[in-house]
Amino acid sequence: MKVLFATSARPTHYFPMVPLAWAFRAAGHEVIAAGQPAITGVVARSGIQPVAVGPDRDLLAIRRKLLALPPADDAAPSGYTDDAAGTDALAEMAEAVDAMTDDLVSYARWWRPDLVVGDPMSPGALVAAKVLGVPSARHLWGPDTLGSAEGAAELPGMPGFLAMFERHGVAVDGDPATWTLDPAPAAMQPPAADSTLPIRYIPYNGPGATPPWAEARPSRPRVCVTWGLTSNDLGGRTLFLVPQVLEALAGLDVEVVVAATPAQRELIGPTAAPVRVVDNLPVHVVLPQCAAVVHHGGALTTLTAAHYGVPQVVLTQIPELDLNGERLAPTGAGVHLRGASIDVSAIRAAVRSVLSEQSFSDSAARLRGQMLAQPTPADVVAQLAN
Question: How far apart are CA 377 and CA 65, in angstroms?
């Protein structure tokens, strides 16, 4: 069986699909992952064969326009706040999402996959599957309405969505995906449609070796601080709250590990013990020995922490990340602070709560149990291959 994965150019959109791609390979199937040129190196480092399709598009630059954020270098915004700019940005985002569809369809016609799997920002995968008359799967990366009855009703209104199918001569009635693969626990999702298949979330946040200190049990509660990629790339210093988080943690009897990128280290500046700043260390390497994590609300960080049963303090500043905090907080596995409610004293109080109140640890353990009860990628391969 041939399986074609399609991914947007954002690594965090590709990473959740990697364990399923591995599972298909381990079961003896042929696997290729198609994406814009910028993502092919990330795909290759995950052990999956890449193929480049379409031109590169800067999705984050368009997101900044949609969210009325200044450029990541903190220069003054350029008219992002008026309605016309927002309308133009929606059209620009639709064009960027569609940019690889034609090449993807052409490649699929040549390679003839038996199944096409794509992330939510790669609807061209669903187009290619429709053109070939083969099944397709949408692989979510976190909490989402897609895969629910509510999400199916939203699809026709998404800018440019139906036009992609029409351009290639295929009709769409309802959700074009044969299945939606959902790695989020049921407690964090709306009621699923019949076509939604749960899949166990297997943490993969990029390659990286585990240093000895990360495996050792710490003498004091270890708190991980991480700001992922999206928030920093979107807003630069404007949305980067790690210095405030470190100020909030100062004086607490904890060991602090900051999982950062080299660019983020420059924003953090000098730190004193007991703060350890590590560059390019995947968060799944750091979290197993942590008592809590403070983060920006990224879906992968949220699910990785939930997988390891780590209580969370989620600090969100943009709508697409608010959803993750909003879905996590009712499970009892963490605290969600958003927007104007985020300050040093509120962060300190939230961290103290998740470390001292047993209810957070108990709820995080229950959420972990729910995730571990979901079918493994190998189980899902057996379902999709039938």
Answer: 36
